[in-house]
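Batch manifest line 353
LIGAND: NAP
JOB: complex structure
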Amino acid sequence: MRAMVCDSFGPPENLVLREMPGPVPAAGQVLIEVHAVGVNFTDVLSMGGRSQLKRSLPFTPGVEAAGVVMAVGPGVRTVKPGQRVLGTRTDGTYAEEVVFSAEEVFVIPDTMDMPTAATFYVVAMTADYSINQRAKLSPGENLLVLGAGGGAGLAAVEIGKAQGARVVAAASSGQKLELALSRGADAAVLYPPGPLDLAEQKALAAEFLQHAQRDKSDGLSIGDISTVHDSRGYHVIFDGVGGTYTEPALRSLGWQGRYLAVGFAAGVPNVSLGPLLFKDANIMGIQPGDDNVRLPARSPERMAKFYQWFRRGLLRPQITRTFPMEEAAGVLRLMADRKISGRVVLITSRAQA
Ligand SMILES: NC(=O)c1ccc[n+]([C@@H]2O[C@H](COP(=O)([O-])OP(=O)(O)OC[C@H]3O[C@@H](n4cnc5c(N)ncnc54)[C@H](OP(=O)(O)O)[C@@H]3O)[C@@H](O)[C@H]2O)c1
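JOB STATUS: finished
ARTIFACT:
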């Protein structure tokens, strides 16, 4: 079988196609013939040696895939050969055959195609964990999503709407915003490509606030920082972008707002805590590392909820392009250069066979 292999940390171009021995499932493991692979920003980070999870070289990137069960190891009763499944791992899915722990595998609905299954779980889990478990978003609250045209961003828009929130999408291109609006966002903010200087950050904060639709009470306020309970601003902000976009986001939080630090695609932010103090606000780091959250088969209730949202059309990965797996390096280059809207999927030769 063939896999994409990274021999040295660096740019996406370091990824090469290699013939490898097929893996054999041990006890508790499932061998999947991979048809489709979801591409995530974390793959760019792991290739660059910038992921929090340290990999030893050589390694194969990729955290999710969908395909058909080829074989199961001793003790596996949850799935059987021939079934269509999705799976997640911490790496290794850019390959034609992949072994997963049975807890990382979940049967997919008949109506879900392989590219959709390959991009379905990781961003949905991340957005659901952030928005519901951490921020506890309530119906009617204002949610701002940065990077709203990307994978996790679009899932946050969809899940925010599924929860009955008013969702404002922010992104760097009209195409990305169109996608977010097509998935239910109520308003859109186009931001500059960045990095933003101070004046641009202030202008963006003002624009975010214009769309927050949370009345500002008269009276107590210190300049732009309101200290009253009904202050204008967002109840929840989902930020997978970071960099110089985070300060304007923090400044547009409302009273007791919850800021979700999901990722730093534009760099680790360097921010002032002033706006948080005056608004009794919270910064929440997002790390759904607990296996009960991270692994699909360990949280069947969560998967049942996601599948229900899928059937109702509320949660649908927006696949804008597919590529042969052999072109993975070029795809990661597009992602690193911010040129991808929605989701892209790698298709293996096994899907064509
Ligand atoms: N905490 C967790 O457990 C967890 C799990 C999954 C993902 N994440 C994080 O969530 C974020 C989104 O991940 P994803 O897989 O959905 O990726 P994605 O589809 O590539 O989305 C990332 C978005 O970040 C924005 N961006 C801003 N500056 C960028 C830059 N210099 N390079 C690339 N993108 C840039 C882009 O939107 P604009 O061009 O519109 O700004 C892009 O759409 C990433 O930061 C990722 O690390 C975290």
